[in-house]
Specification:
Number of strands: 7
Distance between the termini: 40 Å
Strand content: 35-45%
Radius of gyration: 15 Å
Bound molecules: cobalt (II) ion
Shape: globular
């Protein structure tokens, strides 16, 4: 495994739409292993392939006992609302409130190309939404929550 360089939001790569994963091969496994090691080193709880400069629809989330590797993820259902602070390994010195679902049902492929459907809740659901957004070039602060009273900072 190897630590990969995490690109920051000054890099236009992070705004591109990633392409589907089509080869569930050794190269993908190496990428996923490297992403996990890179995420651990950076003390994060999720990472998407475009954050290490690979424009493919692959992302990982790890929080507590929860660990998931998702290729070509699609959110089939979402419900509930949790408004909480978010940050990102690609965004230095910035965090803001984001409104995320408390429940999602997500379809994805694992590293071997097997399709799964999983229900994810609470913090893990928020983290999955954040990482899946990266695959479409969306960053958390694009979705900054404002209650209309306090306004934007
Ligand atoms: Co992020």
């Amino acid at each position: 495994m190897a630590i990969r360089n995490i690109v920051t939001d000054s890099d236009p790569q992070l705004r591109k739409i990633s392409r589907e994963v089509v080869s569930f091969d050794e190269k993908l496994h190496k990428l996923l292993d490297d992403m996990r090691e890179t995420m651990h080193k950076a003390d994060g709880c999720g990472l998407a392939a475009p954050q290490v400069g690979i424009l493919r629809r692959a992302c990982i989330v790890e929080t507590g006992d929860f660990f998931i590797e998702m290729m070509n993820p699609v959110i089939l259902e979402a419900s509930g609302s949790q408004i909480s602070g978010e940050a990102c390994l690609s965004v230095k010195n910035r965090s803001c409130l984001v409104d995320r679902p408390t429940y999602i049902k997500v379809e994805y492929f694992d590293r071997y190309g097997e399709k799964h459907i999983k229900e994810v809740e609470n913090f893990a659901a928020k983290a999955c939404c954040h990482e899946i957004d990266h695959l479409d070039g969306i960053l958390f602060y694009d979705k900054e929550y404002s209650d209309g009273k306090r306004g934007r900072r």
